[in-house]
Design brief:
Number of helices: 9
Radius of gyration: 33 Å
Number of strands: 12
Distance between the termini: 70 Å
Largest sheet: 10 strands, antiparallel
Helix content: 40-55%
Length: 434
C-alpha cells in the first residue's frame, strides 16, 4: 500500500512540474568542476589585481588617443620626408602601445577566469546543499503521506479535525518546500551554465588577444622595414623625396582612372533582382570597434574623389582606424582572392587586400591592409578576424578601404601597371551596413 501511495505522490508532483528536475540536478553535480584558483590567490586578491590591470588599460588607452590625435593632425600638413618618417614612428609607437594593451588585457582575462573558479565553487556548493534539502523533503513526504494522498483519509485517520487539518497543512508545506527547492536548483543550474560560458568566452578572448599580439609585433617589424626602405630610396634627401612623390601621384591617378573606367561599365551590368535589398546589418561592420562615425570617406562622388581621382568616384568607404586594428569578415563566405599590389606598383592601388565572396550574391573587398591572415580558398565566418588595417597601397594614412561588389560582375584581371586587380560593379556599402 505504501509503495503504491509513494508512486502516486511522485506522479502528482511530476504532473505539477515540481519534480521535473529530479534527474537534471544529478547530471549537474556530475559535470561540476571542483578545481580551485590556479594562481592560489584569494578572491579578494584577484579582484584587487583585476582592478589594477583595468587602470593600466585605461592609462594606455589615454596614451593611444593622444597618439592618434597627433597622427590625425599631420594629415593636413604638406607631405614631406620628415613628416612621412614621423608618421611611421607614430604608427610604431601606437602599435607598441596596443601590444602593451593586449598583454595587460590577456593578464586581466586570466585573473578573471581564476576569479570565476570561486564563483563556480560557490554555486556547486549551493547545488549540493539544495540537492540534500530536496532528498530530505522527499523522505519527509514519504513519512507524512501514508494515506495515498487522499485528504479524506487524512482527516478520517486522525482523532480530531484539528489534527487532520495540521497533517494536511504539513503535507502541503512539504510539497511547497519541494517546489521552491527545485525552483532554486533550476536557477543555480542556470547560473552554473552562465559562469561556465563566461569562462569559455574569456578563454577564447585570450586566444584572440595572443593572436593579435603576435601579428602586431610582426606589423611593427614591417613598419621599421618601411622606414629603412624610405630612407634608402630617398637617401635622406627632401628633394629626391619630392621627385619620387610627384611620380607616385601621377601613377596613382593613372591606376585610379583604370579602375574607374572598368568599374563604371561593370556597374551597368548589375542585376538588382539578384541582390539582397538594402538593409541595416545585412553586412557586419568590417573593422573591430568601428562605427558609422569612423568613416573618413564615403561612397561615390565624394569631395576627395572629385579632386583626388581622375574618375571622380570612390568605389567603397574608408574607415579611419589606427594601424593594426583587426579587420573582420563582413559575412560568412569564401576567400576568393588575396594579394599585395605594392609588389607591382608601390603605394599605387589597394596594397595588401582580401576579397570574400558571400552566399547572398555580394562580394567584399578589404584594402590597404598591413597584414593578411587568411588565404585564397579559406572559409570564413561573419566577424572572424581576417587581417589588420594599415596604409599599404594608395593611402594617405592608416585606414580600411571597404568595397561591396555585385558578385555576378566581380572578377580578378590584369591591370595596365599594377598586376592582378579586383574589378566589379560596386554598390554602396552604407546601404548594407547601417
Amino acid at each position: 500500500m505504501k509503495k503504491k501511495h509513494s508512486a502516486k505522490l511522485i506522479l502528482a508532483l511530476a504532473i505539477t512540474g515540481i519534480c521535473s528536475l529530479s534527474c537534471v540536478f544529478v547530471a549537474t553535480i556530475a559535470r561540476a568542476d571542483t578545481s580551485s584558483s590556479p594562481t592560489g590567490l584569494t578572491k579578494d586578491e584577484l579582484t584587487t589585481q583585476i582592478q589594477t590591470k583595468a587602470k593600466q588599460l585605461e592609462s594606455i588607452n589615454q596614451q593611444l588617443q593622444s597618439t592618434q590625435q597627433n597622427l590625425q593632425g599631420t594629415k593636413q600638413q604638406r607631405i614631406t620626408l620628415q613628416q612621412q618618417l614621423a608618421n611611421i614612428d607614430g604608427n610604431i609607437s601606437q602599435l607598441n602601445l596596443n601590444i602593451q594593451a593586449d598583454q595587460i588585457n590577456t593578464q586581466k582575462l586570466g585573473l578573471e577566469i581564476d576569479s570565476l573558479h570561486y564563483d563556480i565553487q560557490d554555486i556547486e556548493s549551493s547545488i549540493t546543499d539544495k540537492r540534500q534539502a530536496i532528498e530530505k523533503t522527499f523522505v519527509e513526504l514519504q513519512k507524512t503521506d501514508s494515506t495515498n494522498g487522499n485528504l479524506l483519509m487524512v482527516f478520517l485517520k486522525n482523532d480530531s479535525l484539528a489534527a487532520g487539518v495540521f497533517e494536511a497543512q504539513s503535507l502541503n508545506t512539504l510539497q511547497s518546500q519541494l517546489s521552491a527547492d527545485i525552483g532554486s536548483l533550476r536557477n543555480l543550474h542556470d547560473q552554473y551554465d552562465k559562469q561556465i560560458k563566461t569562462a569559455s568566452d574569456k578563454k577564447e578572448s585570450i586566444s584572440s588577444a595572443q593572436q593579435d599580439l603576435s601579428n602586431k609585433k610582426a606589423i611593427v617589424q614591417d613598419q621599421k622595414a618601411t622606414r629603412q626602405t624610405l630612407l634608402a630610396q630617398t637617401k635622406s634627401q627632401e628633394s629626391l623625396f619630392q621627385q619620387q612623390l610627384a611620380a607616385l601621384q601621377k601613377q596613382q591617378q593613372q591606376i585610379a582612372n583604370d579602375i574607374e573606367s572598368l568599374d563604371a561599365v561593370l556597374r551597368t551590368k548589375i542585376d538588382p533582382s539578384e541582390l539582397p535589398p538594402f538593409g541595416a546589418g545585412i553586412l557586419g561592420i568590417p573593422v573591430q570597434g568601428a562605427s558609422e562615425a569612423s568613416i573618413t570617406q564615403g561612397y561615390g562622388a565624394t569631395s576627395f574623389a572629385k579632386n583626388g581621382y581622375q574618375g571622380h568616384w570612390h568605389n567603397g568607404v574608408d574607415f579611419g582606424v589606427p594601424i593594426g586594428t583587426p579587420v573582420l569578415a563582413a559575412d560568412d563566405g569564401t576567400v576568393v582572392a588575396t594579394g599585395n599590389q605594392d609588389l607591382y606598383c608601390r603605394k599605387g592601388a589597394y596594397g595588401k587586400f582580401i576579397v570574400i565572396s558571400h552566399g547572398n550574391n555580394l562580394t567584399t573587398l578589404y584594402g590597404h591592409l598591413s597584414r593578411q591572415i587568411v588565404t585564397k580558398g579559406d572559409t570564413v565566418k561573419r566577424g572572424q578576424v581576417i587581417g589588420y588595417s594599415g596604409m599599404t597601397g594608395y593611402a594617405t594614412g592608416p585606414h580600411l578601404h571597404f568595397t561591396v561588389y555585385a558578385s555576378q560582375t566581380f572578377y580578378m584581371g590584369p591591370s595596365k601597371v599594377c598586376g592582378q586587380m579586383p574589378f566589379g560593379g560596386d554598390l554602396s556599402p552604407l546601404g548594407y551596413l547601417f
